[in-house]
Amino acid sequence: MTMKFLRDAKVYNKRVLARVDFNVPLNEKGEIIDDFRIRSTLPTIKWLLKNGAKVILMSHLGSPKGERLENLKIDAVQQRLTEYLDLSVVKAPDCVGKEIEDWTREMGSGEILLLENLRFHKEEEENDLKFAKKLAGLGDIYVNDAFGTSHRAHASIVGVPKFLPSFAGLLLEKEIKALNKLLKNSQRPLVAVIGGAKVSTKLKLFKELLNFADHLLLGGVLANTILKAQGLTVGKSVVEENMVAEAKKLILTGTNFHLPVDVVVSDDISGKGKIKVKGPASVEDEELILDIGPDTLSLFGEIIKKAKVVFWNGPMGFYEQEEFAQGTINLAKIITQSGAYSIIGGGDVLSILDKLGLAEKINHISTGGGAMLAYIAGEKLPGIEALK
Fold first, then answer.
1. Which long-range contacts (CB under 8 A, 24 or more apart) does 264-268 make?
2. Disulfide-capable partner of 229 in 104, 114, 131, 247 (CB 3.0 to 4.6 Å)?
3. Can 276 be counted among the known catalytic residues?
4. Which of 110, 273, 347, 369 is catalytic?
5. Are strands 257-258 and 364-365 parallel, antiparallel or unpaired?
6. What's the order of all strands across the beta sheet hosting 54-58?
7. CA–CA distance, 191 with 309 (Å, rounded to integer)
8. Residues 6+ apart with CB under 8 A from 175
9. CATH homologous superfamily of domain 6-173?
10. What is the pLDDT of residues 168-221, one digit of tens each?
11. Is 37 a catalytic residue?
């Protein structure tokens, strides 16, 4: 079976149970730090309202592990939604139960109900079928618009579609089409830029991209780990030691990847120590690699300028410290000026683009971290499979 999309659904006066991803970062006061995921779901919510649906939104927030934690109530999301939609968004005290079901049956066309945090019930992550059936009782139609959680086999993602007619939301459709452009219909040359810190996940991505990218440009802890796998001394640089052997095997299988030809090093990550630019083979024992150097940026820039499609996941260095953020900042400028179709994944890169005012120049910014990496790595996402 093929997936059905929301724009083909008849939603007028129907209770539409939409699984969205409002798992946004909060500060110590419970205030939202970054609402990108909320903003990304607005087109689906507005489409449902415009077409006369009774909109019931459900999401998780954080990892309460089945406990009702005050600091993980979904109140801040309710407030932000009310601001963006300029209408009343009612928040339910729970996400299941007769009271909530009765509430949904009394809703009028064009009204919104936001359910409480799904993960206050341990049955959500356990993919409990009884819990899924209770959730399904709140709607007439199910919509998955939570790409960022679609790699999880949880009750609201894979259980509910067993009981209701199911559709992919506008955001989920957009994510799939953008990533398929990268994977299946790509114009050439296709350039992938991989950085960041999570080497175990990035190595899977690296392995898959070796098969179809024309060029892989590497930075961050992934580059450090591969440099070490090549036998270079990387000093005190952050390296994922248990991945070095795996990296050794991988670098024998491809020649289309590019490591830094020069690096920014220091003996102090605070930026107060001596900062030098040198070749990766010259890193001393007490030094850390903290960014890519100017020659690497120039090399990467020349490759990106010829690209038709650019995929970028993860910063090039320790970008949190201004002295070591220049590689990532300048790379962002090169990519947005290149004219290539650009796809960005990963919250770190998004926050950099936001600060630089460049986010709007990117063709597609993915809301999925782990889900996006899994999709590119060729894994079947449970949430997408459940819609077929």
1. 264/289, 264/290, 264/291, 264/292, 264/293, 264/317, 264/323, 264/324, 264/326, 264/327, 265/235, 265/289, 265/290, 266/290, 266/323, 266/324, 267/236
2. 247
3. no
4. 347
5. unpaired
6. 89-91, 112-114, 54-58, 15-19, 141-144, 166-168
7. 6
8. 147, 364, 366, 367, 368, 372
9. Phosphoglycerate kinase, N-terminal domain (3.40.50.1260)
10. 999 999 999 999 888 886 689 999 999 988 888 788 888 888 888 999 999 999
11. yes
* Alpha-carbon distances, residue 113 vs 37, 89, 106, 108, 147 (angstroms): 18, 6, 11, 11, 21
| Catalytic annotation, pick one of 198, 202, 204, 228 | 198
Q: Per residue in 114-173, pLDDT tens?
A: 999 999 999 999 999 999 999 999 999 999 999 999 999 999 999 999 999 999 999 999
> Burial level of 27, CB count in 10 A (0-12/13-18/19+)?
exposed
* Confidence at residue 184, expressed as pLDDT on a 0 to 100 scale: 82
Catalytic residue among 37, 54, 80, 228: 37
For 78-124, the pLDDT digits (tens) are 999 999 999 999 999 999 999 999 999 999 999 999 999 999 999 99
- Tell me the percentage of the chain whose pLDDT exceeds 90: 81
| For residue 161, cis peptide bond before it (omega within 30 degrees of 0) | no
> Alpha carbon of 278 to those of 144, 224, 227, 265, 371: distances in Å?
49, 14, 14, 7, 36
Residue ranges of the chain that CATH labels 3.40.50.1260 = 6-173, 186-376
Question: In whole angstroms, how far apart are CA 56 and each of 19, 110, 118, 186, 322?
Answer: 9, 11, 13, 37, 43
Encode pLDDT of 242-273 as tens digits. 889 888 888 877 788 999 999 999 999 998 99
- Known catalytic membership, residue 370: yes
Q: How far apart are CA 273 and CA 286, in angstroms?
A: 11
Q: Confirm whether 207 is a catalytic residue.
A: no
- d(CA 152, CA 386) in angstroms, rounded, equals 11
Task: For domain 186-376, give the CATH superfamily.
Answer: Phosphoglycerate kinase, N-terminal domain (3.40.50.1260)
Please report how many Cα atoms fall inside a 13 Å half-sphere around the Cα of residue 245, on the Cβ side: 1
